[in-house]
Amino acid sequence: MWSVIEWEGDVGRRLRIVIIGAGIGGLTAARALLMRGHEVELFERATTLGDVGAGLQIGPSAVKVLYALGLGSELDHIACAPENVSTFNWSDGALVHREPFQDTFRKYGAPYLTAHRADLHRLLADGASGAAIHIGKRCVSVASTGRGAVARFADGSSAECDVLIGADGIRSVVREALWGRESPRYTHYMGWRGVVPMERALAAIGEKSAEIHRRDVTLWRSQTGTMLFYPLRAGELLNVFGGKYTDEWA
């Protein structure tokens, strides 16, 4: 989600734009704005932009955005396009159902891809190389001014701009400044995520369904939860998600 504080001025000129947050959303916005010729600066609270996160499923709408940003060939290189979606029975490992996966999404004009978040983040960071990125900059407040907007940071520094975009996550300072504080709502579904080397995962799964897990999005379902697997990084890795219905936050 992007939150925006904007100056109602002459948008025909080159704008100085500040983005709070250099994650997937912030870097995507930066790439798009750079392509329009604007001056872009990002401020990220983390002290590094390293190998963080697990797998992401990238639907056709998001894929089309990345293609429009000129990142299609790089995206295709780092991502996987699962061939099918397969469902297994939790208790005995039997294959319950399997159907073509990409056919479902072809009508939307782009494939359905999976990628490691770190790979996608690195691709976007390279694509936004024309923007200045400042790390270790925790935003503590934002406000509109007579000429635009200003962001202030924990170290006492500040940044003024024509347009300020908030891409600073679930605890967004920008969103709170615009619409007030909101608390996350627990959905009573708890998830654990991780990434496993593909060959180690297939050895544990066994030969019976190993090749299916290498190529497909696979679901193992039970009455109390779901295990979800899909390939990453050209099949080098397997994303693992374990979800459980529970009233208890664990």
Please bin the fraction of helical residues: 25-40%
Radius of gyration in whole Å, from Cα? Answer: 21 Å
Tell me the CATH architecture of the domain at 3-53 and 119-179.
3-Layer(bba) Sandwich
Number of strands: 16
Give the structural class: alpha/beta
Could you state the CATH homologous superfamily of the domain at 3-53 and 119-179?
FAD/NAD(P)-binding domain
Beta-strand content: 35-45%
Mean of residue pLDDT? 90
Describe the overall structure.
The radius of gyration is 21 Å and the shape is globular. The protein is 27% helix and 36% strand. With 250 residues, the chain is α/β, with parallel strands linked by helices. It has helices spanning 24-35, 60-68, 72-78, 102-105, 117-127, 173-179, 198-205, 207-215; strands at residues 3-6, 16-20, 39-44, 55-58, 84-89, 95-100, 113-116, 132-135, 139-144, 149-153, 158-161, 163-166, 189-197, 217-221, 225-232, 237-245. The chain has a domain at 3-53 and 119-179: FAD/NAD(P)-binding domain (3-Layer(bba) Sandwich). The chain starts with a strand and ends in a 5-residue tail after the last strand. A six-stranded mixed β-sheet has the order 6-5-14-15-16-13. The chain has a five-stranded mixed β-sheet with strand order 1-12-2-3-8, with helices on both faces. Mean pLDDT is 90; it is low at 4-9.
